[in-house]
Structures are given as C-alpha cells and as structure tokens.
Amino acid sequence: MKPAVRSSRSTLLLLALLLGCREEGAPPKPKGPAVPQRIVALAPNLSETLFALGLGDRVVGVGDFSTWPPEAASKPRLGGLFDANLERIVSLKPDLAVLLPSEKDLAAKLAPLGVEVLTIPNETLADVERSFATVADRCGVPEAGARLTDEWRNGLAPRPLPNHPRVVISVGRQEGRLADVLVAGPDTFYQELLTRLGAENVFADAPVRYPKVSLEELVARAPDVILELRAEEIPPAEVERLVRDWDQLADIPAVRSGRVRILSGDWTAIPGPRLPKLYAELRKALE
Questions:
Q1: CB-based contacts of 94: which residues, under 8 Å, 6+ apart?
Q2: What is the DSSP code string of 211-228?
Q3: CA distance 193 to 9
Q4: Cα 97 from Cα 41, distance rounded (Å)
C-alpha cells in the first residue's frame, strides 16, 4: 500500500485546480491509507529498524528487550514477544503495530481494536533487507528505506576468506559446561553470513535451524574455529573463562590451535540493521 503524501499549501492549491478541471462526473481518486504517526514494535530488530529509518519520534512503545539505539530506552515498555501487555499497548493509541509472524496472537487482538498490523518476517538476510523498504514505504519515508538498503548491501558485500575455515557458531550454553550446546544450523542468517565469508558451517546439514548438539558431535565435526556468541556484554576476565570452558575438547582443531573466539553484545543476536557490524566482527574473528 502506498502511503499518503503530506502536501504543502501550494501543492494543495495545485491539486484543487486540477480537480476543478476534472471532467464533469468523473469520480475522485481514492485516498490512500493515512501515514502512521504512533507506532509500536516489540521485537528488538523491528524497533531498531524504525529508529534506523529515522522514525524514532513516531515510536510510542517498544518491547522489554529493545536496547538500541539509546533513545529506545526512554520509550514505554510493552512486554516481550510472548507476554505482551495488551492493555498498555492500547492505552498508547497506536495507529500501527509492526510485528513478527510469531506475534500472530497479538496481531489478532489488535486488529479488532482498530490498530493496523504490519507483519515483517526476519528469518533470512533477504527478509531483513526487504523489511527496510516495507516499513519505510508504509510510513511514508521511502527514501530512508533506499538509504538503509544501500548501507546494508555495502556492509554485507561478499568478502570470502582465502582459507575457507570450517566453523561452529555457538549461540547458547550453560556457563561452565558444554553439554547441550545450541548452535546455528541451516537456513539461518548466521549460515548466510558464513557463506558470504567463504566459510563452512559444520552444522549446515542439521535437521533444524538451531540444534542442540553433544560434545561427541562437536568432536566429530572437527571445526577449525569456534565462535561463541553472547547477547550480553562480557568483560575481558569473563571472556577468558568462557574460552577455557572449551579446553575439555582438546582434540578439536579449533581448541588445539587456540581459535576459540567470543563475541558479545546484543548486536550478535538481532537480525536487524546492525547485522553488518556482526558480519565485520565475524570476518575479523575468522582471519
């Protein structure tokens, strides 16, 4: 749907003149939907997209885990993806809710209340890139969408490494132990980033996107590099401890050669406008 265009006084006058010259009896052109002015988004990647498009002043509420940019911290908190505070959302009188497909229950509750819902997939890099134009067009700032898309494509241009490392990306485990390590598998944006770097994801053939794997499976896959991603900021002393946890797998090439890397920060886990930062850090860690 094309957003309505805010017209200056002179533009309104011109439109009035043109309409006055309309052939008698010709029907007026239908109006497009109003440009939303009060927007809510609970998923961190979607609120980040709104701010990256310069729409922060229209955002009236965000999810509990939205921390970037710093301006998001001042916005009312509306709960998480699975425990949204419907009463508070409605009290903010939003005219647009930007939601993930997984938030379909919330969407079903908002629609009857007159809140328009814009559903944005985010499983792949293509999904994220498309989201910039989709949100920008609906909010009446297509030029911002084009700008953000250009920055994204430049930041994620293929930059293959010469050594083609075999990599495992750990995205979750209990501290102090390696049992049931959650890793990035096929059809994830992590997999796509590794492909653009010319690296091989050793769990690319897993049956699910994010499988839990045993120590035996990790040893059998024999990765050249282990990348452990932590959504919380980790101080240097803690980084060293996390690296030492992997010493029990001394037979893995990555451990033998000292190529266990820890990347920490919420930008490591959010498929949004900051993925080029993760891409650059992944490349640095694999060099």
A1: 36, 38, 39, 40, 60, 61, 115
A2: -EE-HHHHHHH--SEEEE
A3: 48
A4: 6
Give how far Cα 272 sits from Cα of 124, 151, 154, 269, Å. 10, 12, 15, 9
DSSP conformation class of 77 = B
Note the Cα 191 to chain centre separation in Å. 15
Two tokens, residue 185: 């598998």
- How many Cβ atoms sit within 10 Å of the Cβ of residue 133? 16
| pTM, to two decimals | 0.85
Which residues, 6+ apart, have CB-to-CB distance to 280 below 8 Å? 155
Cα within 13 Å of Cα(131), Cβ side: 27
Beta bridge partners of 168: 226
Does residue 206 sit in helix, strand or coil? coil
Q: How many Å apart are CA 237 and CA 56, to the nearest integer?
A: 36
Pairing, β 59-62 against β 39-41? parallel
**Beta-carbon count within 10 A of 286 CB:** 20
Residue with tokens 């005219």: 95
What gap in Å lies between CA 46 and CA 103, rounded to an integer? Answer: 12
Chain position carrying tokens 């008698």: 24
With contact defined as beta carbons under 8 Å apart, do 136 and 142 qualify?
Answer: yes
Residue 260 pairs with which residues in a beta bridge? 226
Average pLDDT across each block of 10 residues of the chain; the chain has 287 residues. List them in order: 39 31 40 87 97 98 94 94 92 97 95 95 94 98 98 96 95 85 95 97 96 95 97 90 93 96 95 97 96
Is the preceding peptide bond at 207 cis, omega within 30 degrees of 0? no
